[in-house]
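From the pipeline queue, job 12 of 40. The input is one protein chain; the requested action is below.

Action: predict structure.
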Amino acid sequence: MRTGRALLVALLAAAPAAAAEGVPAHPRRLEYPPWQFELPAAERLRVELPRGAVLYLVEDDTLPLVEVAAALQVGVFLDPPGRAGLARLTGAMLRRGGTERLSPEEFDRAVDALGARIAAGVGETRGGASLSATRWTLEPALDLFFEMLSRPRFDPARLELSRRNLVEALERRNDDPLDILEREWQWLLFGRDHFSTRPPTPATVGGATRDEIVAFHRRHFRPQSLVLAIAGDVRREELVPRLARRISDWPEAGGEAPGASAAWPPAAPVHEPSPGLYLARSDTPQAKVLLGHRSGPGDWSERERVALQLVNELLGGSDAVSRIPGRLRAAEGLVYRADAHFDTGLPWPADFRVFFEADSAKVPTAVSLARQEIDRLRTRPPHPKELEVVRRAALSSLRLGFDTAEKIAGWYAEDELLGRPAGHWERRYRLLESTSGEEVRRAARRWLRPGELVVLVVGRPAELLGEKPGESALERAVGAPAVVLPRRDPVTLAPLPEDL
């Protein structure tokens, strides 16, 4: 015991000496070396598979799990005229409709018996499927996964059930005012004829036959446009031959040219938005508001895209600096929630939007203050300390985007699908480190366009406009008379007769 006490006394006596040798006296004085952002070279992870398919593989034996994602250039943009919803229905039926060999029930039981998870779907501009399995069930799970992708059954009974479920969902399209807000916003900015704004109806979904779904799958689900991202407890030398065999067994489409979809990239809309104030009626106690404009596709450089990412962080980021939510919610107490985002898009257009929810009486003030914050960023560079906060947030977000094997494989696969150049993420990181406040202001000045603002409010027109439409505080805040949009039948989306 005396020896132990003597050792403790000696250690305590040595503590000041340790501090003198470089250990700070307080944790706040700790200093860390700069973070070195380094990613594995994409070419080391890339594998060319038979028939034009591409794999990005990141080995990780931390857990005995394997994550598989398959992506293709297939989406709503490929829906034929009069068949809005065909692509999404095809994607849903991949998983629900069984395979040539297995009925839907047999396929479900086979997946469950392996303890695996398989999902599939089609969105606006891409489609595909995912698989999660343990290392020891991966081989049979991959059999089921590729069987689903390449030889789906599209079971008629399951197809009819999916169709009925979709029609029932259409009947609820007006239940949530946020759904109304998004639908009308898309129409105002992109028109009603663009692929991204054509909503399915019972006529378009109900008219899609099983033969049309089979033909859509055969035409667009091809190995030639398949990109795989796989991460987990696998070995390259073992996995690649297994994938090659399954892709070689994929049925030929017949007469289809190899490579990406001929419709890629998706067509841009021809609709020209009309700035102004628009009201959509909904009996909701808090008005839902979107204001903004179309954002692209633009001819911005990579440096300008990075500057716009910092614009995003300044106006609506989630960190300590977030001007519009901070002003409208925290400082003024006008709104329940708020957000701002400038989407630079990819090969297709996107938007700049400010969103908030507020009592009707507070909407005019909130609109005015949001516009003030947009103008402030357009006219004055951010303070250096403010810029440093949002810069750190953006850099941290980028690092976290690549902190797992699954994310690394996924981002590199997306780069392949979208045609991003090699080294894209490293360059973005360096640009985030060096972009100046003046560059941020110039990007805001060029691409935030107050004169093109579309303001859409979902709520109660009588409360929003008061007794004197044309002279309301909201119309003065926007600088335009209100246009009241017609209410719509939730199923057909046709204007209700009393609003014509």
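Job complete. The mean pLDDT is 89.
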